[in-house]
Write a structure and sequence with these properties.
This protein is an all-alpha fold. Helices cover about 70% and strands about 0% of the residues. The longest helix is centred in the first third of the chain and has 18 residues. It is elongated. It starts with 11 loop residues before the first helix and ends with a helix.
């Protein structure tokens, strides 16, 4: 059986090029934050200074943009899941987005939180038809708060939805 010659270790340029290729492949799958890319490259055994250079290169090329990521995240999570501000804030924080970027993205979101919560509650109420009024109230309140809506909005929306519903 023929033995393959041992692979020579990669030099610094080749290692950095390999990290860039890994980063490109990761970015081609979905939009991610700077911190997520740093974590990914660290899991691939990238050296911290090389990771910094790769991330800086991708940021300067506008392939990595936390501001854009946060804006897209807020827009899609609100339209698809009906997420409120506290859920959006927590999810972005978990992805390593800076507080100032999170604040801007949440403050610039389209639409009214009340209207969003109202439409969610109206859809949710259909599945609660057979329950008593107290159970409907508790479940709607919990549902809206788990989606990240403030207690005051959840309470007002729940009262409005249940007041229009026959007992």
């Amino acid at each position: 059986m023929e033995q393959k010659p041992p692979k020579k270790p990669l030099d610094r340029e080749e290692t950095e090029a390999a990290l860039r290729n890994l980063a490109l492949r990761r970015l081609s799958r979905s939009m991610i934050t700077e911190q997520q890319l740093r974590d990914y490259l660290a899991r691939k055994n990238g050296e911290p200074e090389m990771i910094d250079r790769v991330v800086a290169r991708f940021v300067s090329a506008k392939l990595l943009d936390d501001v854009e990521f946060a804006a897209v995240w807020v827009r899609t999570r609100r339209s698809i899941r009906g997420s409120g501000p506290s859920t959006l804030r927590r999810e972005l924080k978990q992805r390593g987005v800076a507080d100032s970027i999170i604040d801007n993205a949440i403050n610039e979101r389209d639409g009214d939180d009340y209207d969003l919560a109202l439409s969610l509650a109206q859809r949710r109420l259909n599945g609660l038809r057979g329950l008593g009024r107290d159970a409907q109230f508790r479940r709607l309140m919990g549902f809206l708060q788990r989606r990240g809506h403030t207690p005051s909005i959840a309470l007002a929306v729940t009262k409005e939805v249940l007041s229009t519903e026959p007992a």
